[in-house]
Each structure stands twice: as C-alpha cells, then as structure tokens.
Known about the structure:
heterodimer, A: mainly alpha, 13 helices, B: mainly alpha, about 0% strand
Amino acid sequence: MKQSIGERLFDVFNSLLLLLIMVLCLYPMLYVFNSSISDPDQMLRSRSLMLIPEGFQLGAYKSVFQDTRIYTGYMNTLFYVVVGTAINLLMTSLAAYGLSRGDLMGRKTLMKLITFTMFFGGGMIPTFLLIQNLGMVDTRFALIIPGAISTFYFLIMKTNFEGIPISLIESAKLDGANDFLILFRIVLPLSKPILAVMMLYYAVDHWNDYVGPMLYLRSQELYPIQIIMRDILISSSTEAMGAGADTGFAIGENIKYATIIISTLPIMLVYPFIQRYFVQGALIGAVKQ
Amino acid sequence: MLVPVVAYYLIFSYGPMYGLLMAFQESYNPIKGILAGEWVGFDNFTMFFESYYFWRLIKNTLILSFYSIVFGFPAPILLALLLNEVRKKWFRGAVQTISYMPHFISVVVVVGMLKTFSSLDGGLFNVIRDFFDLQPIMFLAEKDMFRPMYILSNIWQGAGWASIIFLAALSGIDPQLYEASKIDGAGRWRQLLHITLPGIMPTIVIMLILRMGAVMNADFQKILLMQTAPTYETSDVISTFVYRSGILEGNYTYSTAIGLFNGVINFALLIIANAISRKLNSTSLW
C-alpha cells in the first residue's frame, strides 16, 4: 500500500527518535569504557566527550585486579547467587505446587494471607530485629533465608503449575506416587521454561542486592561485590588500591571507571542471550494480571 | 510439603508484623522481648508528627513519588508506542535490546556513574556544562539537582525494561481491528486514539494501581546511595530517615512507628486506587 507523505514523515521522525534513545542508553557506557583506558592527564586536559579514548593505559585495570577485595567480593556474590537461587527455586516450587492443587483444605485463606504480605509488611526495623534475634546477623544465612520466597514470583509460578493437566497428577497418584515424587518427577520437568525464568529473576535480584548485606553483614570477608563497589565508587576508597599519592587523583577516577567495567561486563555480555527468557517472564507476569 | 512454606511466611512475613507492636512501646528490650516493653499508646506517632522532620519527610517522599509517576510512568508507555510503529523487525529488536541494557546495571553502579560523571575535574556532566560556558558544579551536593538526577536516572535505567509489559499488551490487540479501521479510512493517529490506546488501557490501569500502592516508597536503595548531607533538605525521605534513626541510631520503637505510619498510608492508597478503578472501568487487582 502506498504511504502518504505524512506517514512517511512520521516514520522518519520515529526512527530518528528511537535512534536517539539508543544513543542515550549506550553513550554513558561508552564514556565509562573509554575513560577507563584513557591517559588520565590527557583526559583532564582535553575535557572531551570521550567518543574515542584519549591516550591509552591499562594501569587502572591492573590496580583493580591487584585488589583482593574484588576477588572475595566476586566469590561471595557467586555463592549468594548460586545457593540463594537454589533455595529460592526449591521453596517457591514447594509453595506453588502445594497451593496450585484445588483439593487442599484452607487453600483460599492461605492464599489471602500470603497475598496480603505483598502489600503490607513489618518494615525495616522489626525485620532487622527479628533477624538479629534469630542469630543470623553477620552470617551468610541472612542473605539467603529471609528472602527465600518472593510472593510475586510465587504467584507467577503457581499460575503456571495450574496449567498442568490434573489427570497427569491423578494417574501418577494411582500408581502410588507421593506429592514429592509428583513435584520432582512430573511437575518440575514439565515446567522448565518457567523455572528458567524464575532462576534468572532470582539470580539477578541476588546479584544486585546491596541493602541486605549492608544491614546484616559486618565482616568484610562476607561482603558481596555490590558492597565493595559501593566502597570504591561512592565512598571513594580508591586510595587503598595502590593509587596512592604518586599516581595522583586522576588515576583514582580511572580506577572507578575500570571497576564499573569489570563488575558490569559479565552481565552485559550474557544478557542479550538470556533476554528472551526475561521477556518471557514479564509476559507470563502480564498474563497473570 | 507446605510446612516449610507456612513456616517461612509465619516467621519472615508475619513475624515482623508482630514486631510492629513495638511502635506502641517506650523502648525495645532485646532480652525480654516485645511483650515486656512499657506501652505508651500513640506517643511515638505524636512525637513524629510534631517533630521538625515530619513535614520535610512527607513533602520529599510525596514530591519524588509524584514526579516519578508524572514523568517516569508514561516513559515506558511512550517507548512501547513508538516501538510498535516500527515495521522493520531488526531495527525494533536492536532498539529493544539496547534500551533494556541499563536495567542490568546495578543501582550501586548507576549511582557510582552519576558520581563520577559529576566530578568537578573532567566528569561528563561538567564537561557538558563547560561546553555551554557554565561553571562546574557538584551535582550530587546540590539540593536542587537531587530530584531531576533521581528521576532522570530512574527513567534511563528502567524505561526500556518497563516497556516490555506494554509491548506484550500491544501484541495482544486483534490485528483485524486495524484492518477494519484502515478500510474506514482511519490514519495512524486515529488508530492510536481509537484502537491502540483503549487496547492497552487495562494494563496501564493495573500498573498505575500497583504504583499507587507504593506512593510512599521512594526507592530506598537508590536514595540512600545518592544522598549527601547537603541534599538532605530535598533527598531525605521516610525510609532513609527510618534507616538512620532506627539502624544507625538505635531508636527502634520510634522508627518502627514511622515505618508503620508509612505502610498504613501505602496500603490505604492501594485500596482506594483499586476501588476507584473498579468503579470507573471495572479493572482491578481483586
């Protein structure tokens, strides 16, 4: 079909606008990357928009990699992500399977009580004191157990389980399978897509968490990468990284840029490949509503 | 099978709710527990209402929330509508992938970027100011800069990602409606007004209701990272105040009361928004 001039103008304008949005999203990261490998003195003098690096050095990266805090941080984050997500998935599956079955007594009341927690809670201080009283402060448990189920994700998963034909479960029961066997042998294998989505959502939440560690951790050796990042980027502790008096202030800034790149690059490289699962998850969430 | 689940919710969701009783007590005694405290009724609340901080906290929380709704809420909808008009699949895919990108940068890093960008010596923001012959300023230390920086960086980080849900709603609209309207001679503008917007209205309303239930929750994580002492006047919100006075200064019962006040208002707003929406266009959460 032939397009009118107005429509063509609109298409051009629309494409330009979206291009601008792309540039706005990408440019800050490009700036950070170029700054991290630029020569600090040259950068200070030229005050450019850093479309290309000004000079070249890798000293900032060397300093960051010499800092052992980054390694322990990465290791700890890895632990919280892997173990935390495993527990999340187990608990959420138990909840979703248990409550997706229509024959359970008191199911409606239980659902109401659980949904209520999505909109109202005890708040920061009572939660903090509870965790303190349970003796979880300054242990890895504090970051793994208290958030074991996200009610929102649980609702998504439950809706999904409800789509599994009930006859399948009934016939397994007739064959003498108990609920655990049914969940792990039948329901979960049939729900791989939603499990993948939930895994990614939970994992990203653990990866990004910094309020939990800030509230509950005291010992440095338990700190995840986000706390280390906060110390380096926001509380400005680059001096501890060997960017001392002789290298001066400018390399300190380069170290910050390098830290941003090092801590963000892994997820930046992975997410385009897992993007469709995230999107699928958002869609499932939307259908629920 | 549900035993661990019920136990989890009892301990970690309802446990803290039981702890809310502290809000009505003089002080918290870690050894004797909650019931042993001295009851003082609504004293903690009155103390908060009469305190110097009360209006400042309410004002900052509401303003940040209001701006987030006015500027932040429509952003992903607009992006989704723009994307919906793109016919070339590869271009659409590229825009989507790139606009999701900032979502994967952690809050800590985003605030860290804001901080390095505002550096007086060659930070991006000041390089741009320099270009327009303006004096460099410490953006994060300027109280008038806090709100725009907070809102704009939120949009940068979240708009692309939040547009997914609206794109999903858009793809659910029956294409026959567009065909029919074309035959009737409707242009793209008319189609937008009469088909597209009504088509995604339920999703918009649901998202808005959910948003209303969090009006009093400005993003605690981010504000705490962004705020500096000179910006408290515009950046201090209820949750950051609860953190400072409760966790850092140990005024447990007083901050619990403030947190409860906040939670109750949120819950009430959610119920009101839901009721209004159910009356007006029969879309509601429950």
